Amino acid sequence: MAIKVKVPYLTSYSCPNVCVMCGNAPGPGMNWSINKSIATGSKGTTMLLFSFPLCQECDTAIEVKMSTEFLKILFRFLAIAVLFLGAILDKKYFGELGMIFYISIALSILCLILGNVLPNEINQKGFTSEQRERRKRVKQSAEISSIKTPNFLNKNGSIIFIFENQNFATGFSLMNSGEILS
Ligand SMILES: [Zn+2]
């Protein structure tokens, strides 16, 4: 069950030395970051970024996501590039859009199809359902529920975090003069 922790407003916090998702020992330099932009008077917005420790297993599950996302974007980019190239070549050599352009449309569609199929294939093959489940849970492990910047009525301000891992939430609250709301 998700735990709400209210802590004084700060731009960084001490974290318990455990994985924010599963409570395992954290891997070196591995963390899960969440961010939220807040309004800062008339000056626009500021992005707050908070990082929480992740263990090796959770970190691996997340990396997967990143690389397949990257593949999807790469293929979309290729699809557009092929289309442009076809149009440019056709204009240059034939003065109008014709055969080369039609071929490039076909190649472009092929890129889009590959871009949808390949990342999913990689996902299914290389990674267990446990890893896919873990990835989903890491994404839900920490959330920002609300931010109140310090003002003259409330000089500490506050941030309310929501954690899925109870031990992490308790430790985080203790280390940052917080209180558990639920
Ligand atoms: Zn973990």
Brief synopsis:
Helices cover 48% and strands 21% of the residues. With 182 residues, the protein is an alpha+beta fold.
What labels would you give this structure?
182 residues; alpha+beta; binds zinc ion; single chain; two-stranded antiparallel sheet; 2 domains; four-stranded antiparallel beta sheet
3D structure, described in words:
There is one protein chain. With 182 residues, this protein is α+β, with helices and mostly antiparallel strands. The protein folds into two domains: 3-54 and 142-180, no CATH class; 65-132, no CATH class. It has helices spanning 56-94, 99-126, 129-139, 166-175, and strands at residues 3-8, 31-39, 45-53, 142-148, 158-163, 179-180. It has a four-stranded antiparallel sheet with strand order 4-5-1-6, covered by helices on one side. Strand 2 and strand 3 form a beta hairpin. Helix 1 (56-94) runs antiparallel to helix 2 (99-126) and helix 1 (56-94) packs across helix 3 (129-139). The longest helix is centred in the middle third of the chain and has 39 residues, at 56-94. It starts with a strand and ends with a strand. 18% of the residues are buried.
Mean pLDDT: 89
Low-pLDDT runs of 5+ residues are: none
User: Which small molecules are bound?
Assistant: zinc ion
Helix-residue proportion: 40-55%
Using only CA atoms, what is the Rg? 23 Å
- The helix/strand order is EEEHHHEEHE
